[in-house]
Write a structure and sequence with these properties.
This protein is an alpha+beta fold. It contains 7 helices and 15 strands. Helix 4 packs across helix 5. The protein binds 2-acetamido-2-deoxy-beta-D-glucopyranose (NAG) (3 copies). InterPro entries: CD2/SLAM_rcpt, Ig-like_dom, Ig-like_dom_sf, Ig-like_fold.
């Protein structure tokens, strides 16, 4: 008990100048405290008198205790205070008087009583924007406390604030944090915390979306270019076709058509489809002319074998015309 009191009195935490002025002693509620007074050669004839706030709490004269309890007095005259409460705070004084009434020794001290610091708790937030993790040492009651931090069990001597900021880069590997909160009478350590922050996803997402946007834009551009290309191709093809149709009739026309058949018959067939359902066109209309020649070429055995499957769909509507008379 005495050692505990002495340890706390000797200064668990360094006192600041301001607090030194107000309190000589700090103790926790519920604690036992021995007031630090030592009178080595205590004679039985001497009078020992302890006061608290000018009220006598112990008086011993000629070896007899008239106020207080004998067991609370040590051989050197120090006084044990049991189970401290907030009312135990205040000014304590001791006087030792000689037989002839002169003062042999005195001491005065002011005692402050406070609650023990509660066990702190570490919380953290991951600030991915700044690439840091922010830890905070929480204590239930807001009271003046000193904080300290440990990283993997080692005290971070320069970190004495309630918050701690660590860059995410420093978090690689297993990192455990703990904080301690302390006041003048006690110190409590938190449980260790192993923070997990997702390794910077926002930049990745940002990059991915940018790439996606670029791909989309690029894709759209390619599609537009392709469309223009196709339109130009179609136009030039139609132009060529109409020129040819306008130009020659008969054998020469057919020969040129046959040359192109392998690659262009499909397209010609497509352009012809819409007109097939309508009434038969006059011989002057260019598509009709094209159609007529095709129907004629189909009847030729060598040509139909030469182009094979490509020609077979073409004559279908026409079979009514030329073939029925043959049956
Ligand atoms: C204070 O002293 C009393 C009696 O000496 C003892 O029962 C009690 O446990 C002590 N309290 C503390 C906190 O040490
Ligand atoms: C003694 O005085 C202090 C203030 O200085 C007060 O907090 C405490 O309650 C007082 N105690 C008694 C028993 O009067
Ligand atoms: C009182 O007694 C003490 C020791 O017992 C002595 O040193 C001191 O001189 C005395 N004073 C007077 C005035 O007699």
């Amino acid at each position: 008990m005495t050692t505990l009191g002495v340890i706390i009195l000797s200064g668990l935490i360094n006192l600041t100048a301001a607090d030194k002025d107000t309190c000589d002693l700090h103790a926790a509620v519920g604690q036992n405290l021995t007031l630090p007074f030592v009178h080595e050669v205590m004679a039985k004839s001497e009078v020992l008198r302890w006061t608290h706030n000018n009220t006598i709490i112990l008086l011993r004269q000629r070896g007899k205790v008239s106020v207080g309890r004998t067991e609370d007095i040590s051989a050197t005259g120090s006084l044990l205070l049991r189970n401290l409460g907030f009312s135990s705070a205040g000014i304590y004084q001791v006087h030792v008087l000689n037989v002839n009434g002169t003062l042999a020794k005195a001491w005065t001290g002011r005692l402050c009583v406070m609650d023990k610091v509660p066990k702190p708790q570490v919380t953290y937030t991951c600030d991915l924007k700044s690439g840091a993790i922010n830890l905070k040492c929480h204590i239930a009651k807001t009271q003046p406390s000193l904080f300290s931090w440990t990283l993997n069990g080692k005290t971070l001597s320069s970190e004495t604030k309630q918050t701690l900021s660590v860059s995410l880069a420093q978090l690689e590997g297993e990192r455990s944090f703990a904080c301690s909160a302390a006041n003048r009478v006690s110190q409590e350590k938190s449980d260790t915390v192993r923070p997990t922050c997702e390794s910077p996803p926002p930049p990745t997402i940002c990059l991915a979306s940018k790439i996606a946007a670029a791909l989309l834009a690029g894709g759209a551009g390619v599609i537009v270019v392709l469309l223009i290309f196709v339109i130009v191709l179609c136009r030039s093809h139609v132009r060529i076709k109409s020129q040819m149709q306008r130009g020659d009739e008969g054998e020469a026309r057919m020969i040129s058509l046959n040359k192109r058949e392998s690659d262009s018959i499909g397209r010609e067939y497509e352009t012809l489809i819409p007109t097939e359902d309508s009434a038969p066109r006059g011989p002057d209309s260019p598509p009709g002319a094209c159609y007529e020649t095709e129907a004629q070429t189909e009847n030729r055995p060598e040509q139909s074998t030469a182009v094979g499957g490509q020609l077979t769909p073409v004559p279908k509507p026409r079979t009514k015309g030329p073939r029925t008379p043959n049956i």
